[in-house]
Prior knowledge:
Elements lengths: L1 H22 L25 H12 L6 E6 L3 H6 L3 E8 L9 E2 L13 E7 L8 H11 E12 L19 H12 L4 E6 L2 H9 L8 H4 L9 E7 L10
Parallel strand pairs: 1-2, 1-4, 2-3, 4-5
Antiparallel strand pairs: 5-7, 6-7
Helix pairs in contact: 4-5
Amino acid sequence: MLGRLRRRLAADARRRAWFHRLRxxxxxxxxxxxxxLSHDWGFERGTxxxxxxxxxxLDRHRGDVRGRVLEIKDDAYTRRYGSGVERAxxxxxxxxxxxxxxxxxxxxAAGLPEDAYDCFVLTQTLQLIYDVAAVARNAHGLLAPGGxxxxxxxxxxxxxxxxxxxxxxxxxxGASARRLFEDAFGAGNVEVRTDGNALAGAAFLLxxxxxxxxxxxxxxxxxxxxxxxxVRAVKAAAAPASAI
Length: 244
């Protein structure tokens, strides 16, 4: 019965997305209007284009989402991609978040546990924090030796919200992400990849959904026109104690 309900809800969501695409077809993008097709990253039309790349990245590295796992805001990706998860914690600076099990500022060391997690899933967060170097250092400190940090950051995106209440500070390149995390984790412990192309970036800014482009167009990677930057960083294992 629960399965039938889920399938019905999924079918209803697909019908709503189809309706939004029909009501405002992407051909409008060729018109002189400066209004995007969506003011909500394309959620009402289907899957936002950046989410397509985020979820593909996490799927590739689902083997890292294990043991003690930390995630921002909620544990949705931990539940979706994790296996052998022993503990799932949620970090938020907002004490009013009922899902938060760790309330702390990721840019400040106070209140953050040390050497506590085997995996930290940190998606689409760094652009909202001014001191990104502190975030990288503190993410390193949160992980146990051998722990893995999975990061996604935008190269292209609309702003997250009003500057006075939800400041959005940064966009990243592969080079800036590599330097940021190599400074914290050390060279050789960081893998950086960019996803997207000019068409995907333009479509994302216009508010189109991933379903309107399809995998063939989305998967074409153009390093000169990235939409998303992904980082996998590993905290070096502790050196063995010297024999006495």
